[in-house]
Amino acid sequence: MIAWLKFLHIAALLFWCGGLLLLPLLLARADNPVRAGEAARMRIFAHFAYNFCVSPAAVVATIAGGSLLFARWVFEPWMFVKLVQIGALVVLHTYLGHCVARLGEAGYVRPAVPPALMLGAGLAIMGAILVTVLAKPHLDAAMMPDWLRQPLNRQLLLPPAPSR
Ligand code: HEM
Q1: Domains identified in the chain, total number
Q2: Does 57 sit in the ligand 1 pocket, CB within 6 Å?
Q3: Is the CB of 20 under 6 A from ligand 1?
Q4: pLDDT tens, residue by residue, 111-144
Q5: In a domain, 158, yes or no
Q6: Per-residue model confidence as pLDDT tens digits over 36-76
Q7: Which domain holds residue 79?
Q8: HEC string for 52-92
Q9: Which residue's C-alpha comes closest to atom 30 of ligand 1?
Q10: Per DSSP, which regions of the chain are E strands?
């Protein structure tokens, strides 16, 4: 079961991460189409890739990763570092979606962040995640601030009882 989840996780990651690297290249190319009709084909391809391949792959990778988290019970400090790094990847994913939508709706609009920088950021984040997940560095929980390590003995807020 765990082996299948890991297989699904990594297979989906190939499409997700591959797409996040391909889309900046497409955006860079869309700035300078060389053949007639190329810009329109690129818009359609970028939309199709983002909506029907990269985003669904991100969902599958996250569901499989989340299931692995509970199946293997890896609630360890390095995993929280990985989750923060994944947050950065999600920001990049969302920004690329914004650029792809502008490409379709407004013709080519040069993104505020240059595509080469998006590509570099994607590679850096993916590399950092791989280092974290493969090296699984031992991080001491004592590095966390006190308020994260000690119970605060506060009551949960309960909704008011329904009046009869
Ligand atoms: C989307 C949210 C993600 C979640 C919740 C998640 C969670 C997990 C979990 C729980 C494991 C199993 C760890 C273990 O068996 O010790 C795992 C394995 C792995 N993840 Fe993720 N992950 C996510 C995204 C990613 C991303 C974006 C990458 C790479 C860019 C990645 C790369 C890997 C790799 C390579 C493994 C296999 C590690 C091994 O077997 O030692 N994951 N992931």
Answers
A1: 1
A2: no
A3: no
A4: 899 999 999 999 999 999 999 999 999 888 778 7
A5: no
A6: 677 788 889 999 999 999 999 999 999 999 999 999 999 88
A7: 2-140
A8: HHHHHHHHHHHHHHHHHHHHHCCCCHHHHHHHHHHHHHHHH
A9: 126
A10: none
